[in-house]
Automatic annotation (TrEMBL), chain A:
Stored NCBIfam families: sigma70-ECF
Domain RNA polymerase sigma factor 70 region 4 type residues, every copy: 119-171
Family assignment from sequence similarity: Belongs to the sigma-70 factor family. ECF subfamily.
Organism (species): Collimonas fungivorans (strain Ter331)
Keywords from the named record: DNA-binding, Sigma factor, Transcription, Transcription regulation
Keyword Nucleotidyltransferase found: no
Entry-linked InterPro entries: RNA_pol_sigma-70-like, RNA_pol_sigma-70_dom, RNA_pol_sigma70_ECF_CS, RNA_pol_sigma70_r2, RNA_pol_sigma70_r4_t2, RNA_pol_sigma_r2, RNA_pol_sigma_r3/r4-like, WH-like_DNA-bd_sf
UniProt cross-references to CDD domains, sorted A to Z: Sigma70_r4
A GO BP annotation: DNA-templated transcription initiation
Segments passing through the bilayer: none
Superkingdom of the source species: Bacteria
Protein name: RNA polymerase sigma factor
Residues of the RNA polymerase sigma-70 region domain: 17-79
Entry keyword Transcription regulation: yes
UniProtKB/TrEMBL annotation, chain B:
Protein name: Putative transmembrane anti-sigma factor
Pfam families hit by this protein: zf-HC2 (PF13490)
Alphabetical keyword list: Membrane, Transmembrane
Domain Putative zinc-finger: 6-38
Domain of life where this protein originates: Bacteria
Species the sequence originates in: Collimonas fungivorans (strain Ter331)
Gene name of this polypeptide: prtR
Amino acid sequence: MIVPTKKQRFQTNVLPHLNSAFNLACWLTRSRQDAEDVVQEAYLRAFKFFDGFHGDDSRAWLLTIVRNTFYTWYQEQQKQRQETAFDEDMHDFSGVGVAGMAFADNNPETLLMQKDSERQLQQALHALPLEFREVMVMRELEELSYKQIAAIVGIPIGTVMSRLGRGRKLLAAILAPARQEA
Amino acid sequence: MMDHQETLELLPAFADQELGIVEAQEVQRHLDSCADCQREYAAQRIVSARFKKEAVYFDAPPHLAHRISSALPPEPVRAGSRRFSWMSLGGALAAGLALVWSLGLYLNLPSDQERLTDEVVASHVRSLQVDHLSDVVSSDQHTVKPWFNGKLDFSPPVVDLAPQGFPLVGGRLDYLAGRPVAALVYRRAKHPINLYIWPSNERDAAPQLQNHQGYHLVRWTWDGMNYWTVSDLAANELDNFVGLVRSTVRQ
Ligand SMILES: [Zn+2]
């Protein structure tokens, strides 16, 4: 019997979740380039800790690491930014909005192909505070259960529910004036 | 009886089908007679549906998998790329602690469910590969249901959903979790759907959607039966199917 090496097991169990990892990282960092770096760093960490992983939900496990890696990176960015005049608080709308547009502009092709309503949604989403954006992406795009999201974010299931509820209301509110103008 | 405020707070979970059967029924009862809650429920569903439909899903660029694979040991792990110069001792410690803490969470997650998920997807894939979707080919629930008699020690509920766009095409015996189970086969356009049913002594559980190896799965428990369904259908269509099965089985 051939026993697969750690690297082989890792490649079979964890590497297939690369799209999920990259998607989440893109929505968190709002930059493809930063997302690539965060994902690579997360994978290296995941490999280091893979021996200690005995669960079966390797995707949720990986996403937890991607998220932790992102927040460490994000805090460092914040620290650097404080030295410049630009203090983007985690829950601050205006700063996130500007950065969000910059992210969209990185992909002119995607931007051209997007319908107006999609572009509005994309911009509104980037304006959403991180704490709401992350649970919404995990729910609507990654289709994770409340229980999985609770474990990844480290919050009670009830908080997952209220963040999703408030996030959707917030998103609807951001989208509403845009629709009136159109 | 659930009051307005309680209901309002539970509406996101209700819209996501994350409530238990009892709570869901109570929410439904209040919803039937409260216009405010109906509006809020509709708003939750509209935003959720628009997000699913229109938000960009960022697939990883092809070079990333290669970049990661080649960064993995046997060569010793280097401390990340240029953007990760922040890995100070303090940061590394904090990250390590956070990770240990989140790993602790995962050790508590039930692993049987995940093993079963693998089995269900494997069974679904196998049923497609060998072109062996059905042992009894019939769109008539009154043919399919008796076919299981004597083959199983329980009688699976068999419903036809052709009028709603999910015709029953047959059934077969399968094995999951070490026991024989009923597999019902439905179709939506060209997409086959397997619905597995077997007895359970667990309490009712609301549908849970998951995504595994490119397939969508929904599982729930109701009235002494486990239900698992799997398909390559879009999540919302499979969700639709589950809603129909659940409401028809109950009649
Ligand atoms: Zn109400």
